[in-house]
């Protein structure tokens, strides 16, 4: 049994004792002081865990303050401190065996979700473990993705089954998901509750944590950009099903119209996430069970006011009274949007003045999560908005982040418009562009697909056979971009190709002016290419997108892929973080829906970023997840060229629509149709 398999097995059955057989009963841990008698067929000799004085709860700092069996929320400052203490303890281990022994000893005394978070963190950030891959969170915590009644029914069936029964137990979920069609918001439940998107959100916050003593290049800016792109994609999905774009949650004194009932459980014992009724009011926070100080809604409003004042004044102040300018036109130091992101999220270690500008984003999550039981009178658990792995299921997540994005957009609109020099690239002429899919030109299709996971890796069903979880999700037929471009100069030229997608019409069916469409543009791909002199034909597969993570490893995948410490793995630097490949395209409509693709070529000499020697890259999802221990590989502001107002005049004519950018030789637009095949499985 390899050390890697032992480490991987610690992700299995997080709510069971560490001595519970794992890896399809091929691994058993035994405590040195309590030997295990192996009785199950097929189980190998136990791995003995020696006593570890450093695993005593008194040596773990605040890591034990989060109760076992309850929710762990990285939005709560006391939980973040607990996570940091446990991560620090894990990081002090030397080698895989030491980590396995220490983590296995600690497992029984810390919160289960906190344990998985910290173990994932150390695998991502401990250098000797970077070729290890994380198993899908769906298999670790099935109860965060599937309604509890499905799991209970399967557990009952597993207990009743004859042990010689060969047929697998399969839990099917979707496409009806957890709600009915009575309320309009439920039309996009299939998207909000998508497993891949929620895993991405959890993984992104693992890669870009706050207050963990990690230096991440442009962390505040990527917080802005990744969440802005989520809202743009959510709006496209809403337009696909006949809903208006999401409205921001800016008035915290009126009821929240839409409730949310996740039907999920926090743990295996059936403890449910808190629910929110329709028309629930936000209330002042008065709970004393999370180690937080009382917080009034008024304080949120004061923080918001101070942030908006700073934006419009063009600077922030630090505790010494020093002025910190907010501008994206900088040649050194942090961009204003990066500073604003660290302040708004908020990261107490990076905010210029945490006490003054506050903790707006995190505490908005907390107050909404406890709106059903703000004072613990009913001893209810927090709502799903409190956990990055579940928060995107709730419609109010998008209303909150639309508000957050509007604060960022208020800042972006204070920046100077881009100029002709910023937008153009002499010597490059785009001749024609198109997309092809199954021999169709500029016609793309979406539909339903399914993915199987082993729920029995995360939950003990007392079944000798795997219990399969089959999830239905939106998917699309792969496609290729075709770009014909001419390099008019005599020498080869390295360029950056940028591709964005947006709906052609708004909710009223009208074509959109530039400023209305500006924040609907979703990045589809960004890549480098060398143009030879003369005509060049570029073909790029949708599977190579710069925003997506095509592979979500299951335990079975990892069992079949040997992992050894110390070697570099090209498949996993930040791979595992990224938008799900199956949600690259919006749904579209059964009758077809009009979209536009925006293609732009820029000069790599201006775009490139000097990296430290030996810095590694990852081909997956760099636009959303960056590069491990390296600078973000694009010097332009994230979202360029749609992050600012357009120039009032371009080539002697006004800029009214995005199509006016296509006057430039290095920019082209193309109409296309996306058709949703409601009754077909897409493979």
UniProtKB/TrEMBL annotation:
Residues annotated as domain Tyrosinase copper-binding: 394-405
Entry-linked Pfam families: Hemocyanin_C, Hemocyanin_M, Hemocyanin_N
Compartments it resides in: Secreted
Region forming the signal peptide: none
InterPro entries documented for this protein: Di-copper_centre_dom_sf, Hemocyanin/hexamerin, Hemocyanin/hexamerin_mid_dom, Hemocyanin_C, Hemocyanin_C_sf, Hemocyanin_N, Hemocyanin_N_sf, Ig_E-set
UniProt key word Cell wall biogenesis/degradation: no
GO function terms (MF aspect): metal ion binding; oxidoreductase activity
GO cellular component annotations of the record: extracellular region
Protein name per UniProt: Prophenoloxidase
Name of the encoding gene: proPO
């Amino acid at each position: 049994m390899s050390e890697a398999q032992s480490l991987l097995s610690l992700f299995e059955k997080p709510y069971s004792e560490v001595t519970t057989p794992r890896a399809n009963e091929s691994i058993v841990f035994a405590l040195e002081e309590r030997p295990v008698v192996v009785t199950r067929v097929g189980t190998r000799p136990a791995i003995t865990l020696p006593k570890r004085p450093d695993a005593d709860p008194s040596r773990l700092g605040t890591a034990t303050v989060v109760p076992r069996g309850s929710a762990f929320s990285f939005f709560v400052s006391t939980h973040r401190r607990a996570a940091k203490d446990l991560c620090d303890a894990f990081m002090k281990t030397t080698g895989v065996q030491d980590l396995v022994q220490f983590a296995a000893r600690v497992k029984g005394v810390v919160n289960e979700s906190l344990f998985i978070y910290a173990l994932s963190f150390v695998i991502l950030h401990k250098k000797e473990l970077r070729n290890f891959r994380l198993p899908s969170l769906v298999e670790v915590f099935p109860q965060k993705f599937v309604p509890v009644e499905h799991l209970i029914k399967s557990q009952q069936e597993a207990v009743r089954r004859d042990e010689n029964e060969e047929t697998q137990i399969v839990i099917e979920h979707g496409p009806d998901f957890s709600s009915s069609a009575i309320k309009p918001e439920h039309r996009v439940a299939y998207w909000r509750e998508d497993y891949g998107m929620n895993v991405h959100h959890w993984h992104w916050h693992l890669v870009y944590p706050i207050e963990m003593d990690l230096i991440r290049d442009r962390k505040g800016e990527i917080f802005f950009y990744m969440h802005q792109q989520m809202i743009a994609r959510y709006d496209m999905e809403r337009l696909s099903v006949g809903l208006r774009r999401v409205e921001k949650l800016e008035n915290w004194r009126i009821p929240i119209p839409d409730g949310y009932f996740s039907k999920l459980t926090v743990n295996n014992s059936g403890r449910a996430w808190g629910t929110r009724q329709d028309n629930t009011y936000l209330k002042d926070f008065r709970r004393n069970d999370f180690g937080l100080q009382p917080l009034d809604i008024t304080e949120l409003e004061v923080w918001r006011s101070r942030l908006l004042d700073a934006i419009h004044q063009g600077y922030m102040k630090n505790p010494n009274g020093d002025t910190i300018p907010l501008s994206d036109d900088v040649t050194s130091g942090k961009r204003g949007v990066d500073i604003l992101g660290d302040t708004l999220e908020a990261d107490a270690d990076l905010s210029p003045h945490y006490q003054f500008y506050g903790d707006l984003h995190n505490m908005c999550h907390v107050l909404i999560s406890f709106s059903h039981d703000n004072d613990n009178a009913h001893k209810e658990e927090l709502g799903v908005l409190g956990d990055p792995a579940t928060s995107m299921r709730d419609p109010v997540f998008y209303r909150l982040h639309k508000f957050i994005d509007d604060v960022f957009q208020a800042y972006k609109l204070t920046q100077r418009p881009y100029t002709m020099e910023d937008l153009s690239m002499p010597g490059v002429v785009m001749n024609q562009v198109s997309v092809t899919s199954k021999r169709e030109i500029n016609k793309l299709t979406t539909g339903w697909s399914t993915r199987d996971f082993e729920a029995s890796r995360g939950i003990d069903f007392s079944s000798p056979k795997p219990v399969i979880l089959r999830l239905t999700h939106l998917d699309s037929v792969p496609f290729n971009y075709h770009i014909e471009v001419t390099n008019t100069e005599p020498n080869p030229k390295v360029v950056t190709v940028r591709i964005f997608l947006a709906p052609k019409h708004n909710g009223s069916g009208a074509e959109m002016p530039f400023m209305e469409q500006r924040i609907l543009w979703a990045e589809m791909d960004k890549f480098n290419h060398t143009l030879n002199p003369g005509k060049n034909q570029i073909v790029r597969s949708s599977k190579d997108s710069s925003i997506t993570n095509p592979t979500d490893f299951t335990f079975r995948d990892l069992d079949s892929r040997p992992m050894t410490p110390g070697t570099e793995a090209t498949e996993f630097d930040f791979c595992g973080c990224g938008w799900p490949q199956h949600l690259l395209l919006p749904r579209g409509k059964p009758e077809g829906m009009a979209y536009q693709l925006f293609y732009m070529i820029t000069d790599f000499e201006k775009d490139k970023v000097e990296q430290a020697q030996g810095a590694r890259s990852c081909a997956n999802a760099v636009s959303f997840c960056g590069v491990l221990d390296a600078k973000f590989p694009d010097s332009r502001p994230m979202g360029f060229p749609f992050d600012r107002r357009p120039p009032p005049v371009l080539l002697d004519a006004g800029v009214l629509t995005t199509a006016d950018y296509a006057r430039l030789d290095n920019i082209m637009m193309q109409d296309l149709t996306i058709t949703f095949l409601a009754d077909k499985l897409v493979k």
